[in-house]
Amino acid sequence: MKLIIIGCEYSGTTTLAVAINDWLREQTGTDFRIIHDHWKLPHTSGHLPFDTSHVLNEEEQAEVLALSPKLKEMTQRHSLYYHMPRGNTDANQVLVGYLFDDGIYGAHYFEYGRPIDPEDRRIVGRHVEHGFLAEAPDTVLLLLRTDADVIRKRMQTAPHTAGVLQEKDIEFIQGRFEEEFKASLFSRKFVLDTSSATLEETMAEFAQAIQPHLSEVDRSRILAHKALQTG
Fold first, then answer.
1. 82 pLDDT band (50/70/90 cuts)?
2. Residue ranges per domain, the chain?
3. Separation between Cα atoms, residue 26 and residue 228, nearest integer Å
4. pTM of the model
5. Alpha carbon distance 89, 197 (integer Å)
6. In the chain, how long is the greatest CA-to-CA distance?
7. Rounded to an integer, what distance in angstroms lies between the CA atom of residue 201 and that of residue 161?
């Protein structure tokens, strides 16, 4: 399975990625192995919750934020290209935010990737998507929608460490994710609303919504895993 999960910060993208990883293991006997969530500056490394040894500490996060817009843009662009599919395209992969986080937050908060800047993310993003469509056309794009007031409450009750989203920008950032989701070249895509649903309820919705988007490899793995369990 190739999956890109996007949505405004606090919509539950990372939490859902972990839950889908468990679901994938139960259904196919395989999983994502690691979760790539590197595009909300200053969180550019590590693979939580599995790899904590490479997660940046507070001092290192401050160093990332102190980089010039040029250096922020360059390192994130390299990260985008590094995570493009190549070689074993049957391998499972989940990306949280990816080019959507990079393009939306980079332009709004970090002064790069705008139409007036070199490496305009409208151009870079389409190039990345074309790469996925050529090498991994079964990639699925999932957008999480969450009411703005729910986002606000989550920000107040459980603030993220070095979160990028500012409360005054919630509606604008949500709108930008909607725009980029609609403009995306990915044809396999769907939306889940996490405003009031529990994680278990969202996972039940995911299990149904993903069915028409499963690749032949996914379906073969599910059948093989069921056969092993019943054999």
1. very high
2. 2-223
3. 12
4. 0.96
5. 33
6. 60
7. 27
Beta-carbon contacts of residue 116 (< 8 Å; ≥ 6 apart): none
Contact 188, 140 (CB under 8 A): yes
Instruction: Quote the CA–CA distance of 215 and 227 in Å, as a whole number.
Output: 19
Question: Is 3.30.1120.10 the CATH classification of the domain at 2-223?
Answer: no
pLDDT digits (tens, 9 = 90+) for 164-205: 999 999 999 999 999 999 999 999 999 999 999 999 999 999
Quote the CA–CA distance of 69 and 72 in Å, as a whole number. 5
In 3D, which of 6, 4, 5, 7 has the Cα closest to residue 151? 7
Give the separation between CA 110 and CA 214, rounded to whole angstroms: 36
Q: How far apart are CA 94 and CA 132, in angstroms?
A: 13
Report the half-sphere exposure of 134 (CA within 13 A, side-chain side). 9
CA distance linking residue 74 with residue 44, whole number of Å: 13
Name the percent of the chain in helix, strand, coil, to the closest 5: 55, 10, 35
Chain-centre distance for alpha carbon 45? 14
Q: Which amino acid is at 104?
A: I
Identify the three-state secondary structure at position 194: coil
